[in-house]
Design brief:
The protein is built from 16 helices and nine strands. It is an alpha/beta fold and about 325 residues long. The protein has one domain: TIM Barrel (Alpha-Beta Barrel). The strands form two sheets. It has a seven-stranded parallel beta sheet with strand order 1-4-5-6-7-8-9, sandwiched between helices. Strands 2-3 form a two-stranded antiparallel ribbon.
Length: about 325
């Protein structure tokens, strides 16, 4: 009889494409919800800047709902702040947001000395280490801003989109900078104990950037990030929002071990396009059934994702803070343990 796997074994094996005792139920995107904050006492915005609170909230949905994940942080602003962006830290219900770019133009844009010691990066590294030490049976998943999203934060997304049409050398320069920053940060996170680095790049969605630009500008640099993660001994997951089916072949060719996609992507069609690898993660609607639906709605959508062939059942995107805990439990129950 095959021994029961730990959540960490199950998630890592599924993402590697290895046999598991069942499909894992995890979350590679934002998982902080208000009900968990109220139960644990680890609340936003403190949990964005306090390593103990960040680690506690990051593992909370395993204890409260059985989700197979310890995932931090809870926003896509950590690198941006460390590189000089102004950040508003939000409320107990709202995640932090970039409210001011780091640079007025490409000229002079650079990674500051001591980048890994700036802003909240030391906090995330410390929380990662705490999760690694305290939760040996859970996969420690750390999210970082993707290279295009980070470039948009640094100089303004409108500029990135405009330059991609007529001044592509400016986009290339910013993407080179963000690739370098992401590589250094990802390596530091793995050294601190992260098992999985989730590179979330919503700005690279084909709903914002053309698939041709993704293939020529984004894909080669994402390969650099995925190669760095692999060489350091970690697993990499690439998350892109929206109708990513249009670029899923290029996403697969970036070398990431897993692709996280929303409900807008047909899992069976995506699998037909990319083949057996990488792993597909998702794609239960975070703003739909998980946030505004019933537990039965979640269960039905999860069953459809399982039937379509997801390798890891998970929210398709970051959870809304008011997502009911009961719906997370329904997601976990959908695997029929």
């Amino acid at each position: 009889m095959q021994p029961i796997m730990t959540p960490k074994d199950r998630v890592l094996r599924a993402i590697r494409g290895e046999a598991t005792d069942r499909v894992p139920v995890s979350c590679v995107t934002q998982l902080g919800i208000v009900e968990a904050m109220e139960i644990t006492g680890a609340r936003w915005p403190d949990a964005h800047r306090n390593a103990d609170a960040m680690a506690l909230l990051g593992a909370s949905l395993h204890a409260l709902a059985g989700l197979e994940a310890a995932r931090i942080p809870f926003c896509l602003t950590v690198q941006a702040e460390a590189l000089g962006c102004a950040v508003e830290f939000g409320t107990m219900e709202q995640t932090p947001a970039v409210v001011g770019p780091a640079f007025k133009s490409v000229d002079g844009a650079a990674i500051p000395d001591g980048f890994l010691g700036r802003g909240r990066i030391p906090t995330v590294l410390k929380a990662t280490q705490k999760l690694h030490e305290k939760h040996a049976d859970l996969p420690v998943i750390v999210g970082i801003e993707g290279i295009c999203t980070l470039a948009g934060h640094l100089v303004g997304i409108e500029n990135i989109m405009k330059w991609s049409i007529r001044e592509r050398e400016k986009v290339s320069k910013m993407l080179d900078l963000t690739t370098q920053a992401n590589t250094a940060y990802a390596e530091a996170l793995i050294d601190a104990g992260a098992d999985i680095i989730c590179v979330a790049d919503p700005t690279a969605s084909p709903e914002l950037l053309s698939p041709r630009d993704f293939a020529s500008l984004i894909k080669p640099r994402l390969k650099e990030v995925s190669n760095a993660i692999r060489k350091r001994g970690g697993l990499g997951v690439l998350h892109i929002c929206g109708r990513a089916q249009r670029i899923c072949k290029d996403m697969a060719e970036t070398g990431f071990d897993g692709l996280s996609v929303e409900e807008k992507v047909d899992i069976a069609q995506a699998r037909a396009i990319i083949g057996t690898r990488p792993a597909l993660i998702g794609n239960v609607a975070a703003p739909g059934s998980l946030f505004s639906g019933t537990a039965d709605d979640v269960m039905q959508e999860a069953k459809r994702a399982l039937a379509a062939g997801v390798d890891v059942l998970a929210p398709g995107c970051g959870l809304a803070s008011r997502t009911p805990l009961a719906n997370i439990r329904a997601l976990v129950d959908a695997v029929g343990r």
